[in-house]
Write a structure and sequence with these properties.
By secondary structure, the chain is α/β, with parallel strands linked by helices. The protein has a single domain, classed as Decaprenyl diphosphate synthase-like (Undecaprenyl pyrophosphate synthetase, 3-Layer(aba) Sandwich). The protein has 7 helices and 6 strands; from the N terminus they run E-H-H-E-H-E-H-E-H-H-E-E-H.
């Protein structure tokens, strides 16, 4: 791979619940707890690696509302606590935090923490941490189209301009854990030309070496963009 520009790396962190079950833990959301701690380690690694300029992580999809209400509540609380705890660290490390997804269905307290963290870090330019919460690719595109004055205004450029964060570069490489090999409605627009890397490991077992290998796999490939 000849590209020299820093990459936008995305992670679909599958397997947290299966990891918890196989460990014999009483509650499946205990896997999410471990995943959050692991996520902090991986973020620090990406921030220090010159090959990466942005990290996107899918925390909760528009389809995940079908899950058990207790699990959803626990996960939302974990995300809120994570952002409260990490806000100052993000700023100190010149990291801009952004969120993609709907905000009308998540808890009001989480919505406020998201908005406060975005505001606190909006001028940081060293790295981008991008969390997708209540996010679905189809939903994002639909919301973007709804913002257009009329249907005839729909072009690739106009739709992109109304996505949640059109200023963030498109995704270059996606690592999906737990052996799943499907796109699952993940950033359909921004990942149109992304390279996919699949790992059989559950996300709590994904480490810095796995991210490094995903980047090396990306570098071994040749992106033609249809040419």
């Amino acid at each position: 791979m000849s590209d020299q520009k820093p990459l936008h790396l995305a992670v679909i962190p599958d397997g947290n619940r299966r990891w918890a079950r196989e460990k014999g833990l009483l509650y499946v959301w205990k896997g999410h707890e471990v995943a959050v701690e692991n996520f902090r380690t991986l973020t620090d690694w990406c921030r220090k690696d010159p090959r990466v300029c942005a990290l996107t992580v899918w925390c909760f999809s528009t389809e995940n509302w079908k899950r058990d209400k207790r699990e959803i509540a626990e996960l939302m609380t974990m995300l809120e606590k994570y952002l409260i705890r990490e806000a100052e660290n993000l700023k100190e490390n010149k990291t801009r935090f952004v969120h993609s997804g709907r905000r009308d269905r998540i808890p009001a307290s989480l919505k406020k923490v998201i908005e406060d963290t975005e505001e606190m870090t909006k001028n940081e330019t060293g790295f981008i941490l991008h969390l997708a919460v209540d996010y679905g690719g189809k939903d994002e595109v639909a919301r973007a189209v709804q913002k257009l004055p009329k249907a005839t205004d729909a072009t690739e450029e106009s739709i992109r301009a109304h996505l949640d964060h059109p200023e963030i570069p498109d995704i270059d490489v996606i690592l999906r854990s737990s052996g799943e090999q499907r796109t699952s409605n993940f950033f359909l627009w921004q990942a149109a030309y992304a390279e996919w890397v699949f790992s059989p490991k559950y996300f709590p077992d994904i480490g810095n070496a796995d991210l490094d290998e995903a980047l090396k796999e990306y570098e071994r490939r040749k992106r033609r963009f249809g040419g």
